[in-house]
């Protein structure tokens, strides 16, 4: 299950993953939130948190996640992943190397640092 988190700036999509993720979670929660933010912002920030109750993701959802990443690859300015599980942190680190934007992985105990980093203004190049 994916749940949108409140109290983030409008240019940020913040979700927490709990239990088992299925295709409906992406179709009904994440995709509409991203599309909505992109109507008002050229790029957005993503907060993706894995709750301690997270059990896994269905194969169909993996495909949806890959397609979402492909179609929105250049739409993110920064991504934060919060996870305590070593396997999830490792997978996030691997995927971070494929993203064109900065990605940082934090433990859930580092929420304040993660939020501060996510809200930093991008450095002009």
TrEMBL record:
Pfam families: SpoIIAA-like. It comes from the Bacteria. This is STAS/SEC14 domain-containing protein. It comes from Shewanella corallii.
